[in-house]
Amino acid sequence: MVNFLSNKKWFSWNPSKDTIVALITALIMIGGGYYLMVHLPPGSAIKTVYEVILTFLLVVFPVWWLLCREDGSLEDLGIKKEGLVTSLIISLLITSYFLYYALSQYSFYGSSLIPHFITNALILWEPFFIFCWLQLRFDKAFGIIPGILLAGISLGTYHIGTYPLGEVLVLALFGILFCAIFRITSNLLIMWPLTWSTSSAVGTLKGGFLLGWNEALMAGVVLLVQVGFIYYIWKKTRTKKTVPLN
Predict the structure, then answer these.
(1) Which residue, of 39, 60, 79, 158, is most buried by count of CB atoms within 10 Å of its CB?
(2) Measured on CA atoms in the order 202, 84, 173, 138, is the torsion positive or negative?
(3) Cβ(212)–Cβ(122) below 8 Å
(4) Domain annotation covers residue 172
């Protein structure tokens, strides 16, 4: 039932092409990928286009790489049936805590919090990129502990320049904690959409960002395209594998 205990490879050394590709994507985000998405002129066309393209690629590229190039499966990206119930229970507990915190600390925003929560729930790219892509690649290459640390630190470091240094450290620590929680089941459901809808909502509010209905609409459109692409690639590779050889 619990992957965290069933895999005893706390430390290992088995880097591969996947490891290199994951490191490159992490460095792109740390080197300015995320910074530009936040700091391009607000409301400008270039910011909108850049944000849509980047958030789209942060999901579809790992799916394409693993399923089309490496002959992998969605299970390799945490999209699986195993651990669904455990993931849902843990997610509900975490969500309850952050929802209570957000409502107690930011109730003065009133109904403006509704689109803020919805937008964060619709954002797939960040939990998918951190946990399902980076952490699972680092876990496979270096072991459970390095996987947790590297992915968690990545979450903090690509926020440098966007948040004060103290908040970046807090994000890294929360990233490490969440990576440890994710490793319990290695199932996307444990982090998204419920956990992320409230924990990320608190994080963005602390950073001074209040997301509205326009952001929710854009996040919804991007999510539909991402899910459509995942389904298309899954269907395509599944069909290819089931075609009998002559």
Answers:
(1) 158
(2) negative
(3) no
(4) yes
In degrees and rounded to multiples of 5, residue 203 shows phi and psi of -60, -45
Euclidean distance between CA atoms 111 and 216, whole angstroms: 14
Sign of CA dihedral 231, 232, 237, 238: positive
Triad 240, 244, 246: Cα angle to 5°: 120
Tokens describing residue 8: 């005893």
Residue 224 belongs to domain spanning: 17-37+44-70+82-236
Query: What does the alpha-carbon distance between residue 119 and residue 212 come to, in Å, rounded to a whole number?
Result: 8
Q: Three-state SS for 163?
A: strand
Indicate the number of domains in the chain: 1
Using only the alpha carbons of the chain, give its radius of gyration.
18
pTM of the model: 0.93
* HEC assignment per residue over 37-81: HHHCCCCCHHHHHHHHHHHHHHHHHHHHHHHHHCCCCHHHHCCCC
Contact 1, 83 (CB under 8 A): yes
Tokens describing residue 233: 């690639």
Q: How many residues does the chain have?
A: 246
On whether the CB atoms of residues 145 and 241 are closer than 8 A, the answer is: no
Q: Is residue 98 a part of any domain in this protein?
A: yes
Residue 213 is assigned to a structural domain of this protein: yes
In a domain, 104, yes or no: yes
For residues 9, 15, 18, 20, the Cα torsion angle rounded to the nearest 10 degrees is: 130
